[in-house]
Amino acid sequence: MYIRTLRARECDWESHLDIHFAICNLLRIAAWKRLDFLSHEAHNSRECIQIPGGVSLPEWYGVRTALTGVSVPAWSERDRFMFDYQDIGKVGVRKWLQLAKRYARGLDPFVSLLDLEGATIDAGIAQLGIAFEAIGYELFQERGKSENAANKKPVVDRVDLLVQDVSRTLSFQPSTFGGRFAESYNSVKHANRPQIDPALKQEHFQQGVELVRKWIAYRLGVSAQTLRSAG
Fold this sequence. Notes:
Elements (H helix, E strand, L loop, with lengths): L12 H19 L9 E2 L5 E4 L3 E4 L2 E2 L22 H18 L1 H8 L9 H22 L4 H5 L3 H12 L10 H13 L8 H22 L4 H6 L2
Antiparallel strand pairs: 1-4, 2-3
Helix pairs in contact: 1-2, 2-3, 3-4, 4-6, 4-7, 4-8, 6-7, 6-8, 7-8
């Protein structure tokens, strides 16, 4: 995939990268795989190459930056996208850019789960719980709750609010998931809570990731049939 952003006026590199990061994160969510950039290039409209016939072509320059990850692509036959461009179209991409901005405090740590390679399940549950808390907080406000009322909602209610939108597309029992995930999350977060078996926490982690990915896809316009077939 090739991403190009153009600005009418000169701007800093980070202003361009905001959109590039957002699109890259959308692909990560669809594939649930760590997908990075292959390369970066930039050009200024005042710097062009003149070719015979009086035609001017933009001259692109390679960019090296520590702000992004650049890696060789690794894609196997087993890798699949939960949804693709045909499922969301231009409208869905526009919705994603808006969603990514409004829900950044929850979606950023969610996507960053892909960067926790080698981390313990406790680390994954903790970060996923942070994502659920932030997404649920924003979603309650979107549904009409005040900041104070949304802030008082426990994590189980925040998770259940997402479940309500996509319950028929999930591969696991949705009605009890909020409580089960809250038990795993609180066992990691609070030293005085009962410990949960690591295998059970791993199950709750995988189910939580599925829930957030399908909730995002639902918000972008992906059909329930497509989400159910994704498993």
